[in-house]
Amino acid sequence: MAGLPGRAAPLLGLLLVLVPGLLLAQPPGSGGQPRYEPTWSSLDARPLPAWFDEAKFGVFIHWGVFSVPSFGSEWFWWFWQKEKREPYVKFMEANYPPGFSYEDFGPLFTAEFFDPNQWADILKASGAKYVVLTSKHHEGFTLWGSKYSWTWNAVDVGPKRDLVAELATSVRNRTDLHFGLYHSLFEWFNPLFLEDTTNAFKTRKFPTSKSLPELYEIVTKYQPEIIWSDGDGNAPDTYWNSTGFLAWLYNDSPVRDTVVTNDRWGVGSICTHGGFYTCSDRYNPGHLLPHKWENCMTIDKRSWGYRRNAQLDDYLTIEDLVKQLVETVSCGGNLLMNIGPTHDGRIAVVFEERLRQMGAWLKVNGEAIYGTKPWRAQNDTVTPEVWYTFSPEGGKVHAVFLNWPVSGTLELGEPQAKLGETQVKLIGYKELLKWVALGEKGIVIALPQLTPKELPCQWGWTLQLTDVN
Q1: Helix (H, G, I), strand (E, B) or coil at 118
Q2: Phi, psi (5° rounding) for residue 282?
Q3: What Rg value do the Cα atoms of the chain yield, rounded?
Q4: Which residue in 228, 150, 230 sits closest to 191, CA to CA?
Q5: Fewer Cβ within 10 Å of end Cβ, the chain: N or C?
Q6: Residue 437's beta-bridge partner residues?
Q7: Considering 368, 400, 424, which residue would you say is the last residue of a domain?
Q8: In whole angstroms, what is the distance from residue 320 CA to residue 151 CA?
Q9: CA 239 – CA 288 distance, rounded (Å)
């Protein structure tokens, strides 16, 4: 299917905002590509590009003006000004002069230590296969010089740099990660959105002049392979013209063949419509789902943005994170693990350590994660904290166990082993392991006696089983 020349793509996008049915008049694409109509039934029928399911692990980056106060959470502005929560009000009274506004934080978002090459290298070291950056959060500040942001953006205020462009370039030049962008549909205090809200969303000034043009702008300018939508503002998808945008994205955008989207496109769409499902923040159902899903979660248990007042106990340990990854992948999901950089552009040392630890674990155990499929059982029925994945190539079953047994033997209730055929291997250890079948189902495996330094890794180990039903 031929791409649209230069300015034609965003022009078509803006037309679709105003004329949602426009796509129906378009001719079918060349090469037998299907055309998607701006209806959920049509859009939901689009196959999810294969790379996303194979990737399994990505890094979320929440960065914006909220990184300046870096207190409480990225919802600082809302909690301070709208809900007037006491800790936020007291924090401002104690540290800033009377009359200080949230907009005054803008010039303090400086990013002087932001080195996109260093970020890209850390992301690569994490073992992640994709990254999603907040191009704009609910505060409305864009990390690129948007034509629609009224100077409330990183090119006109603060860093005076196009942060989206810089990170996209470094990620693409230095890694094999897929680059994605988060975008908030609504903005807490935008007067146009507040006016539409007052009119019960019967007027659509905000999406037609601000939110939708921004979406077309970031797609045509940066060609992200993930559009991670969020913040419906209690408005329906018809207010946002989500189906019109997605039809353009899947039919005519420069990323139409590879782009993936989530499910946050208006009230009622979450966990129901879109590409992969997120269902809720930190969603981890613990069982297999019929639709591709993602567990978006934070290393800092309390916040997506950076918090200067975080305590060490507020951060998940690497053992916690490996467990989240294994559980999620076993049940057919992807893990999107969030970090919050500082206002001056640093990835705090605790986040860098967790990312590098995850990368070290994946370097050993990656074959139990990347490109796998769910097995017939997700977790073991006999021994807790054992999770299964399956590699179609070679028919290998992986059993990831999170606790090394004191007895030196591990009992698994699910595999059906066959004498003379089944082989058991500890990934990262050369010799095959001895095992005994427990009747038709179940197996006891003798683990090697290893010192802590001899273990293949420190936080969860993988048994690879061949020829088990």
Answers
A1: helix
A2: 60, 35
A3: 24
A4: 150
A5: C
A6: 443
A7: 368
A8: 41
A9: 33
The answer to whether residues 437 and 364 belong to one domain is no
Domain harbouring 131, CATH code:
3.20.20.80
Q: Give the C-alpha separation, 259 to 275, whole Å.
A: 9
8 Å CB contact between 148 and 98: no
Read off the amino acid at residue 94.
A
pLDDT recorded at residue 394 = 86
Nearest CA to 226 out of 182, 273, 288 is that of 182
Helix 163-174, helix 116-125: angle, nearest 10: 50
Tell me whether residue 64 is in a domain: yes
Answer yes or no: is 295 within a domain.
yes
Tally of CB atoms within 10 A around 165: 16
- Give the integer Cα–Cα distance in Å for 196 and 17: 16
- Residue 31 maps to a domain: no
Whole-number pLDDT of residue 18: 44
pLDDT computed for residue 286 by the predictor: 83
Predicted TM-score (pTM) of the model is 0.93
Do residues 249 and 305 both lie within one domain?
yes
| 25 found inside a domain | no
Q: Tell me which residues of the chain have a pLDDT lower than 70.
A: 1-32
Backbone phi and psi for residue 217, each to the nearest 5 degrees, phi listed first = -65, -50
The rounded distance, in Å, linking the Cα atoms of 221 and 324 is: 34
Element (H, E) at 8: helix 8-18
> If we measure between CA atoms, which residue out of 257, 219, 150, 205 comes closest to residue 17?
205
pLDDT of residue 439: 87
426: domain CATH number is: 2.60.40.1180
Together in a domain, 313 and 422: no
CA-closest candidate to residue 340, choices 11, 45, 68:
68
Q: Residue 124 burial by CB count (10 A; 0-12/13-18/19+): exposed, middle or buried? A: middle
Residue 329: domain span? 37-368
The owner of tokens 């053992």 is 319
Residue recorded with tokens 């309390």: 302
Same domain, yes or no, for 58 and 92? yes
Residue 424, beta-bridge partner list: 465
Residue ending a domain, among 368, 394, 417, is: 368
- State the amino acid at position 283 in one-letter form: Y
Q: What pLDDT is attached to residue 32?
A: 59
DSSP H helical segments within 175-234, as ranges?
191-198, 205-206, 212-222
End-to-end CA distance of the chain: 43
With both helix axes pointing from N to C terminus, report the angle between 349-365 and 318-330 in degrees, rounded to the nearest 10. Answer: 50
Q: What is the tally of structural domains in the chain?
A: 2
Q: Do 301 and 394 fall into the same domain? A: no
